[in-house]
Known about the structure:
Layout: E1 8-9, H1 11-18, H2 22-30, E2 40-42, E3 45-49, H3 50-76
Antiparallel strand pairs: 1-3, 2-3
Helix pairs in contact: 1-2
Amino acid sequence: MSQTDTVFLTRRQQASRYQRSVRTIERWGDDPDLGYPPEIDINGHRLRRKSDLERWERERAAVAAANRTILRKHRSGQPAVAPSA
């Protein structure tokens, strides 16, 4: 287990990290389509692994980049997906 696997963030720390409210963090956790990492209960504290959050951030950034590329191609009149052979 790496050192970042032992770093956990509270909902309040997550809210600060993403500049959102604690309630928004709760809603993200309740939305299965968002893929927000699951909470871990440690002695009654609901926490998320920092490494899980960082992985989620990278995944979201990749999806956003792909969407921007598709949108840019669409606006320029290019096909968003290469035609199949």
